[in-house]
Amino acid sequence: MPALTLDTELAHPPARVWRALTDRRLLAEWFMSTDLEPDRSRRFRLFPGPDWGLPGPLEGELVDLSPPHRMVVLLRGEAVHARLTFELLPRPGDRCRLRLVHTAPLGLTGSLWRRNLARAYRERL
Fold first, then answer.
1. What does residue 119 show for φ and ψ, rounded to 5 degrees?
2. Residue 113 — very low, low, confident or very high, per pLDDT cuts 50/70/90?
3. d(CA 116, CA 125)
4. Residue 9 CB neighbours (<10 A)
5. For residue 101, which of 55, 71, 85, 124 is within the disulfide window of CB 3.0 to 4.6 Å?
6. Mean pLDDT to the nearest integer, 37-43
């Protein structure tokens, strides 16, 4: 399956970015509303806003959670079947690199989908 990989340097330590990835209130501020509670349940829902262009909600499942360095989720919805891998790599000076790998089947409209998805992620990251 094709993958879209985005790397972003952040001026924050991994623990702080980890909180932004796993605290549902913080996640809703920059990504999507969710009922994610990683310390209580492996299943959750994401509620994409209109700017994502996705029917919602999306069903999510945590398949790997290694705080504060790696989180892998499977997402399923009417128009989405994807695996998202978030990795936090420490950098000097209390910084980190966030690597997001979005793996999904692309189908006939794959190039357009890939461009739109990359734009949406870049705007948020």
1. -60, -45
2. low
3. 14
4. 10
5. 85
6. 86
Residue 73 corresponds to which tokens in the numbers above? 């989720």
pLDDT bucket at 3, cuts 50 / 70 / 90: confident
Please, what's the b/e burial string for 20-54 (b: 16 or more CB within 10 A of its CB; e: otherwise)? ebbeeeebeeebbbbebebeeeeebbbebeeebeb
Closest to 96 (Cα-Cα) out of 3, 35, 18:
18
Residue listed under structure tokens 């702080």: 16
Contacts of 29 (CB under 8 A, 6+ apart): none
User: Rounded to whole angstroms, how far apart are CA atoms 42 and 81?
Assistant: 17
Tell me if 95 sits within 8 A of 16, measured CB to CB.
Answer: no
Q: How many CA atoms lie within 13 A of 38 on its CB side?
A: 20
Please state, in angstroms and rounded to a whole number, the distance separating the CA atoms of residues 116 and 97.
22
pTM for the model stands at 0.83
